[in-house]
Design goal:
The structure holds two protein chains of two kinds.
Chain A lengths: L2 E6 L8 H15 L3 E6 L13 H4 L9 H10 L2 E7 L7 H8 L2 H5 L7 E8 L6 H13 L3 E9 L7 H19 L6 H6 L2 H12 L5 H10 L4
Chain B lengths: L1 E6 L7 H16 L3 E6 L13 H5 L8 H10 L2 E7 L7 H9 L1 H5 L7 E8 L6 H13 L3 E9 L7 H20 L5 H7 L1 H11 L6 H15 L5
Parallel strand pairs in B: 1-2, 1-3, 3-4, 4-5
Helix pairs in contact in B: 1-7, 8-9
The chains are: A alpha/beta, B alpha/beta.
Chain lengths: ~220, ~230
């Protein structure tokens, strides 16, 4: 593993619990001479998805802002951490605005050969697992191998000893799963999920319109 | 009766969500119900910065269109929430608007109102997650959840079956409004596991939640004195 990218969807940026957890994980990676980079979505310029569907027909998003740069970083990295605080029992609107723009990655998976984890912070109330379920489903659907998730209570801005241990363990799990990537059959895992079945049907039904999707799936041999 | 539809789709005034809302509005207008179609994409809504001031002081410090939209929600008798399914959930713009409405969620201010949710999707992922999420949010604010309609669209067209469902939903909203069907918000809000967790969270001296704490203190005092809300 050469590089780990963390996408931090917390509006608190560098000063929140999400970034605290990411930093604990980064310390572990740096021990193994792995390059690390944290991107705070709040610092980027991200326009809201206009639903124009050009990404479905021509394959690229016509909007010019920081989204393409961040997606390129995801493709360059070997490990991806996605992090969000729990806002109203789900990921932050800030991170959701970025994910809306990632439709091409979800329809035409490009994150193969990468491992992915999710990080969540919350106030101790609500169903925090929803963040890991959602973000890891997205990463799996985009080609990556989901490794695990972690959540921490972020009220006083400090991590407990246990939470720090969990973060280190998750980093170690990432390294381990990356070493054993060959043993993971991404395609079978993908096709066993409801989302992929729906996607296959969608791409078949819209092949005259969503041509970029159809050509990609056809080239991969996932569709007749 | 007055109905406000909040549309989280970028395609307004075209698109499936607008089509579903317009179908509901046709029934509403037939019955003399006042309607307003509000598109979140047309409004200026800044990103929630997670400062926690709404918990502490009860209002948001960011100056944009959010207060105006919240005011319209409070003025309406019926609220329709509509979003297309993006990446398996409501649009980021809608989610950000809800993030900004946290103070509404923790201080039920939509009591006595009737709500419905609409979702349009292309057949990928589970749209119930989006419609349930929207209904749960207004439920937490005290509104009565009347129902939801999910439309599977092809090339932004809503089929006649789904259009008929939205019109039925509109009639159902008028019906429960005419009956003034009551919804036991106290039971939902204070007996649910989420609420108990929230209660202990607030009681555990979270300094920044003073406004929420104050609200709950008032309720408890009124309950003790036998004053109904």
């Amino acid at each position: 593993m050469k590089k780990v990218l963390a996408i931090n969807g917390s509006p608190h940026g560098l000063w929140g619990t999400c970034s605290n957890i990411i930093n604990v994980m980064f310390e572990e990676f740096e021990k193994h001479n792995i390059e690390t980079e944290m991107v705070n979505v709040v610092e980027l310029k991200i326009k809201t998805c206009k639903g124009c569907a050009v990404c479905l027909t021509k394959g690229v998003c016509p909007m010019k802002d920081d989204v393409k740069g961040l997606q390129d970083k995801m493709i360059e990295a070997d490990g991806i951490i996605t992090a969000s605080p729990l806002f109203l029992n789900h990921i932050s609107g800030l991170l959701k605005i970025f994910l809306d723009r990632c439709l091409p990655i979800g329809h035409r998976p490009v994150l193969h050969g990468k491992v992915a984890v999710s990080v969540a912070s919350y106030g101790g109330v609500g169903n925090v697992e929803v963040i890991g379920d959602y973000l890891l489903e997205f990463m799996q659907g985009s080609g990556a191998r989901p490794v695990g998730e972690i959540h921490a209570i972020g009220v006083d801005g400090k991590l407990s000893e246990q939470e720090q241990k969990n973060a280190v363990k998750l980093a170690v799990d990432m390294l381990e799963d990356y070493k054993n990537l060959d043993s993971y059959d991404w395609h079978s895992d993908y096709m066993s999920r409801d989302n992929a079945r729906g996607m296959k049907e969608f791409i078949n039904n819209t092949k005259d319109f969503a041509t970029a999707d159809y050509e990609f799936w056809k080239e991969k041999g996932w569709i007749d | 009766m007055k109905v406000l539809a909040i549309n989280g789709s970028p395609h307004y005034p075209h698109g499936s969500c607008s089509s579903m809302i317009n179908n509901m509005f046709r029934e509403f207008k037939n019955q003399g119900v006042e309607t307003e179609h509000l598109a979140l994409y047309e409004k200026k809504i800044k990103i929630c910065d997670g400062c926690g001031k709404c918990n502490k002081e009860g209002t948001c410090h960011i100056d944009d269109d959010v207060k105006e939209i919240q005011g319209k929600m409070i003025d309406a008798d019926g609220i329709v929430l509509a979003s297309p399914l993006y990446c398996g959930h409501i649009t980021g713009v809608f989610k950000n608007f809800l993030d900004r409405s946290l103070s509404m969620g923790q201080n039920p201010c939509l009591k006595g109102k009737y709500a419905a949710s609409l979702c349009a999707y292309g057949g990928v992922a589970n749209p119930d997650i989006a419609t349930d999420f929207l209904l749960n949010f207004v439920l937490g604010m005290g509104a009565y959840p009347v129902g939801k309609v999910i439309a599977t669209t092809e090339a932004l067209i809503v089929n006649d079956d789904d259009k008929a469902k939205t019109r039925r939903l509109a009639l159902e909203m008028i019906e429960v409004f005419d009956e003034r069907k009551a919804f036991d918000i106290e039971k939902y809000s204070f007996d649910s596991e989420f609420s108990k967790g929230l209660q202990s969270f607030i009681e555990n001296g979270c300094y920044f939640l003073s406004k929420d704490f104050g609200y709950r203190e008032v309720i408890r005092r009124e309950e003790a004195e036998g004053v109904s809300l």
